[in-house]
Amino acid sequence: SIFFMVVPFCLAALWLGRRYVPVTGPGDRASDRDTPLDWTGLAIGSVGTLSLLNGLVSLRSGPAWEAGALLALAAAAFAGFALWLRWLPRKGRPPLMNLALFGYRPFAMGALVALIYGTALFGSTYLLPVYMQMALGLSAAHVGTILLPSGLVLAGAIAVVARMADRMPANRLVNVGLALLALSFAGMVTVGLGSSVWLLMGWTIVGRIGLGFILPSLNLGAMRGLDKPLVPQASSVINFVRMLGGAAGVSLCGIALEWRLAAHGDSLTRAHLSPERIAAFNEVFLMLAALCALAMLAARHLRPTVRLESGQIEDR
Question: For helices 231-263 and 275-299, what crossing angle results, to 10°?
Answer without folding.
Answer: 150
